Amino acid sequence: MITNAQKIQPAEGKIGVLLVGMGAVSTTFIAGVELIRKKHSKAIGAMTQIGHIRLGKRTESKNPLIKDFIPLADLEDLVFAVWDIFPDNAKKAAKKAGVLSNEDIDKVGEFLEKISPMKAVFDQNFVKNIQGGNIKTETNKMALAEALMKDMEEFKNKNKLSRLVVIWCASTESYIAPSDAHQSLEKFELALKNSDSSIAPSMIYAYAALKIGVPFCNGAPNLTLDIPALQELALEKHVPISGKDFKTGQTLMKTILAPGFKARYLGLSGWFSTNILGNRDGEVLDDPGSFKSKEESKLGVLDTILQPEIYPELYGNIYHKVRINYYPPRGDNKEGWDNIDIFGWMGYPMQVKVDFLCRDSILAAPLVLDLILFTDFAQRAGLRGIQDWLSFYYKSPMTTPNLSPEHNIFVQEMKLKNTLRYLMGEERITHLGLEYYE
Ligand SMILES: NC(=O)c1ccc[n+]([C@@H]2O[C@H](COP(=O)([O-])OP(=O)(O)OC[C@H]3O[C@@H](n4cnc5c(N)ncnc54)[C@H](O)[C@@H]3O)[C@@H](O)[C@H]2O)c1
After folding, report:
1. DSSP codes, 146-165
2. CATH code: domain of residue 266
């Protein structure tokens, strides 16, 4: 009998990691991987590096490292390339981002200096608050997509890579709703040729990657892959896709706390969330268009966790507000406050206050690593289209139409690990446990 595990291609050869955008998240990720490879640091927060998975019964004590259980690419096999609208190399960009100490950056300075961004596909209509000169000049959107395909192919050939993965770590684009040009691949390709204004730069990158069989992950709340045209292309080319918007900071806390209130049937009347941050992401989000993309992505999480339609008396009337304030002195060290108004027995009110002094990119970097390695694994395992099991990593997980996303982080983790068990031909763990008492 052929098990699922036997059908998975081995992780042979080098894998090219193409990052769109080389700001705080990308530089923290790349520098971190190199520091870990040089044994200067540890991959805290990355399931693929330090996570274990239970196999079999609780009594069997079988808990291998995930990277020993599934065939994952090794950190040593990752080769990086980036696109950005600014020409700075990765060392300069890391220093500008101000996340890592100069001491840490300098330890891998020579390595970072060698990574210079390729020219970006950029459109000021989608990101208002920044301007840069490292931009492709093709005048037609299809020609821009073809130029990106050429970049990817040259990178692959030059470095003798066996596989590629693209991940969007660039600025949040202005909110747009799906339109007619997004509804089928045929319409989308025509719109590319006509340089239709509804095609965002992130969609051009995604199209270029999928068209040549390269998987794409979306770390920002842009519409990007959430359109029938690109989902059709992913299926046609047998490519995994996932998104959107890395789940870090305040939303991470929300999806940890809300399942707890729900599990105890505590009611919720209000959740007020506000943030101050001073990095370039904060500057971009100061524009109302980009903020609207972020707001949509942040507001969505409570409804599917709390199910107000089933529990109207507990969650039918919640005042949920999210604010992001650009405050330069803080840099990447965001502070997120949550005031949560809950109620218990007989409706008596209580409050929970959270003050999370987090580091945005320190929380995001391990997610980038896991997404790249799991996406590459997914492709070798023959998975294609939307990867629902990677919802764990996203604020606003993509799902097939008419299926509500899963936001509860504990369910997401179980789903991810059960997917790995399933793909490797191991029994799924339901936590039923009756057999221990038979
Ligand atoms: N840090 C987090 O915790 C976190 C969490 C969720 C989502 N995100 C999202 O990840 C993205 C990156 O965050 P960051 O803090 O690194 O932002 P950043 O502003 O530091 O970096 C973004 C980079 O993208 C570049 N860029 C913009 N448009 C581009 C284009 N079309 N092509 C190529 N490069 C382009 C910018 O020049 C900039 O260098 C943002 O969209 C952010 O909203 C971050």
Report:
1. HHHHHHHHHHHHHTTEEEEE
2. 3.30.360.10
Q: Is the CB of 83 under 6 A from ligand 1?
A: yes
Whether ligand 1 lies within 6 angstroms of the CB of 203 is answered as no
Output the CA 270–ligand 1 centroid distance in Å: 30
130 Cβ below 6 A of ligand 1? yes
Q: For the whole model, what pTM was predicted? A: 0.95
Give dist(CA 367, CA 365) in Å, integer: 5
Residue 161 belongs to domain with CATH number: 3.40.50.720
Domain region containing 308: 250-357
Rounded CA separation 401/32 (Å): 36
Q: CA 257, CA 408: separation in Å to the nearest integer?
A: 9
Does the pLDDT of residue 298 top 80, yes or no? no
The CB of 20 under 6 Å from ligand 1? The reply is yes
pLDDT at 91 > cutoff 70: yes
- The whole-number pLDDT of residue 3 equals 62
Q: Indicate the length of the chain as a whole number.
A: 438
**Model pLDDT for residues 228-284, shown as the tens digit of each residue:** 999 999 999 999 999 999 999 889 999 999 999 999 999 999 999 998 988 877 788
**Residue 2: is its pLDDT beyond 70?**
no
Q: Which residue is it, tokens 């690990």?
A: 417
Residue 352 has pLDDT above 70, yes or no: yes
In a shared domain, residues 225 and 262: no
Tell me which of 169, 171, 277, 280 to substitute to probe ligand 1's pocket, judged by most ligand atoms within 8 Å of the beta carbon. 171
295 Cβ closer than 6 Å to some ligand 1 atom: no
